[in-house]
UniProtKB/TrEMBL annotation:
It catalyses: a 6-O-methyl-2'-deoxyguanosine in DNA + L-cysteinyl-[protein] = S-methyl-L-cysteinyl-[protein] + a 2'-deoxyguanosine in DNA; a 4-O-methyl-thymidine in DNA + L-cysteinyl-[protein] = a thymidine in DNA + S-methyl-L-cysteinyl-[protein]. It comes from Actinomadura viridis. Belongs to the MGMT family. Residues 86-167 form the Methylated-DNA-[protein]-cysteine S-methyltransferase DNA binding domain. GO terms for biological process: DNA repair; methylation. Residues 8-79 form the Methylguanine DNA methyltransferase ribonuclease-like domain. This is methylated-DNA--[protein]-cysteine S-methyltransferase.
Amino acid sequence: MNPSLAFGALDTVLGRLLVGATETGVAWLAFRDGPGARARAAERAGLPVVTDPDRLAPALAGLAAYFDGEPRDFTLPIDWRLTSPLQRQVLTKLYESVPYGQVVTYGELGERSAAGVPAQAIGQVMGGNPIPLIVPCHRVVAANGLGGYSGGSGVEVKRWLLTLEGALPATLDWDLATAP
């Protein structure tokens, strides 16, 4: 069987998420679904697009449960083909070692992953994560604050996700029933 990419979408409080999976596992997640996002993912993967709802069902069900507030560590198979060796090393360590409701600093993740690069480079790896949420780059924070976030509408999405997970206390002006 030739490798292929299948897409599925899920409406969430943060918008319509796009998930892409190969036969190996989840390879892509974007915070905005649409023809452009699908075309970019397919071009980056270099794979033909097929229709295969069964392939996406576990990821979409897991994401739905996550957004329903169910504490969730994803245990989905991941296809790392869209990552460099450094990204794969760091993101695999993140996926395997930072559970729901916990955070790690960029520097700590660099040490855990034995990547041999400074915290700033770890931040760049997080910014290039092709599978945010499932590979939880939102759980990686700066030593002096939240740090950045390239998913959705930026750092406010990161704050919302960490508040949902209980890693940040809800503030008086923050309502989990609404999203940025």
